[in-house]
Design a protein that fits this description.
By secondary structure, the protein is mainly alpha-helical. The chain has helices at about 5-30, 35-55, 70-80, 80-85, 85-100, 110-125, 145-150, 170-175. It is about 50% helix and about 0% strand.
Amino acid sequence: MGKIEWAMWANEQALAAGLIYLTGGIVGVAGQFRGWEFAAFGVAAGTFVCLLEYPRSKRRKGTSVARTGQYCFTVVVKAFGPLTRNYYVRAFLHAALCVPGGFMLATVLGCVCLGISSLIYLSAAIHGEHWEPILPRTESRAPVAESVKKPPQNPPPRPPPELRRKRMEDLEGAAYVNPIAVTANEY
């Protein structure tokens, strides 16, 4: 059975948590609820979490699929070096950012989701995972083999070589020899 890549799950959870936190913060600020300052913090924290979590990390197997437009964010996240690459730092950062969201009803769901993603990141860090950027491929493709350049001339199903149709220049040689005797139907 394969190993679970916890960071992949934590990234998806944290991105969703950031969007939920941001939405709850917008609702809290727009509604001018009591303690709307916590909602304003939720808007800032949700935006920060979304920007931090948008670029996916490279998987161990190498089957990573980058998100659309992630390269710009990857450069920024990569520039901060060990602060963003280390999952212990991300776990404690998310845990700290989710605390103020617990003081207002509009941001509680984002707070809980961010807390869960913090625990998943902590599990990823304990299992020795770290963030690696998905960079665009710079390698060139290998040259195409000669057999691929020249496609087959006849469509499938292709008969064995000894039964293939011969060229039409030699009419006698192009004719097939039918192994089954053909007789006219007499009805």
